[in-house]
Amino acid sequence: MASSRRMTIRGVHYRIEQQIGHGLHSLVYGGRDLRNGRPVAIKIINFLHGSYSVKADTESRRQSYWKELQMLLYLQPLNPYIIRVLNHDHNERHGIIVMERGETLRDTLMDHVLSGKPLPPSQAHRFWSQMVESIYYMHSIGIVHGDVKPENFIQLGADGSVLRLIDMGISFHLPPNVTSRLKTAAGTPDYVSPEMVNSRIGMSSRSKTGYKADIWALGVILFEMAFGYRPLQSLRSNEAKLNFLGKLRRDITIPSHPDKQLRDVLKRCLRANPRRRPNAEEVFNHPYVSGKRK
Ligand SMILES: Nc1ncnc2c1ncn2[C@@H]1O[C@H](COP(=O)(O)OP(=O)(O)OP(=O)(O)O)[C@@H](O)[C@H]1O
């Protein structure tokens, strides 16, 4: 299937440029479609060996590849915010998904978070409205994303203002509680909701609570864009953050902000009690999102 720096997938030739990311069980390369020079991301899931710390057997890696691919293909016509799948293939050793390539929103936010600078309000609004709509689409067909964070949004378009979701939150079979997953994964608990920390069912749960956990994560992202830091950023270790979230009974304080609608939607999304948080439709129809749509 592959020769050095070139790869042919179902008859289409690609040039491989560099590794642009990795997941717990995958490597992602930046490449070009040699027919038209179009930039692509090529995600390769190794069925035989895990490159990273979490152990999963070959069968569960293979199943996860199929689940992810099927979910992506299923969502293509239903949700315009899902990353477009351009090609895919598999053999005994690997599963491959070729997608549109962009920059992760994390890279853009990083500059701001490092210097404690908020994103320009119009940019924050443009990004967040798309995120809300993408999650609204998912929830309205009964799917919880389960891992909403800036790393999972890719910026496309000439000015990077168009967002796509890349990771459907479909994970390998991991230990069944969130704390163990967070200890094994390289991730941060900054976007994890209080109820997920207390839950025995884990972050990939499709249970009712999962919907409101997606809303909490959207709230954390808006907070980060609006203030230039994350709500739990001052707590240094993952353990401290999990501890704080696990004991959270009162709503966290939202700093003052000149945009009243933004502060209001933030307060609602970051309510400690998931039952008091709005659902995706209510967030989509909140004046902060819908007002600027009219
Ligand atoms: N379409 C894309 N364009 C640009 N970068 C991408 C793209 N898809 C993935 N990446 C990069 O590769 C990384 C890993 O991709 P992805 O999250 O899909 O892998 P994963 O194996 O599902 O991860 P996890 O172990 O968190 O479930 C992303 O965080 C991102 O940096």
UniProtKB/TrEMBL annotation:
Gene Ontology molecular functions: ATP binding; protein serine/threonine kinase activity
Top-level taxon in the UniProt lineage: Eukaryota
Alphabetically ordered keywords of this record: ATP-binding, Nucleotide-binding
GO BP: any one term: autophagy
Protein kinase domain: residues covered: 14-289
Gene3D superfamilies hit by this protein: Transferase(Phosphotransferase) domain 1
Protein name: Protein kinase domain-containing protein
Lineage: Eukaryota, Metazoa, Spiralia, Gnathifera, Rotifera
